[in-house]
Amino acid sequence: MRDISRASGVSQPLIHHYFKTKRDLYNEIKRQMILRFDAFWTDTARDVANEECVPAAVLRRIFEFIRDNPTVLRVGAWSQLEGDNAPWPGALEALERVSCFFSASQAEGSMRSDLNPTLLTILVEGFMFSWWEYRESYLRLYKGIPGHENLDEKVLEAMTEVFLHGTLTRVQPKSGVRKSSESQKGNTD
Question: Which fold has domain 29-165?
């Protein structure tokens, strides 16, 4: 707590008055990050609801939030390193607010209804956190390679394309090409 006091310019007794332990302070930091997302999402919800393609708008806005709030990634990474897998205060409610947009799109028929909206939200979060977590490494890796410019935007476009349309073509496999390893198990020739 002494280091926190020094870094923040707040007296140690005052910090102890509000936060009895480091864990209490840490939980408050996580709660504040969720509240920041909630404020962001409240503003975003009005914009996203008017978009032509709600799922694409949701992806873009979450991408922008994580880009603009890198501390979320740092605290999340630190949390994992410390073995703290407890849900963040308010995280479930935040997840449900995003999932509601997918549910609404399903109800109006613009998204497949056989996909769980909560799992879709987790997938989007995974896409986003993965990119922003390793972004600097990818930028160094691809530096100097043609097409590396505007990699953030290109990654978001690819994420959106995969999320909306998948990775498979609509073309059927040529005859003689096996569809899966399952079809090979019964064939012994």
Answer: Tetracycline Repressor; domain 2 (1.10.357)
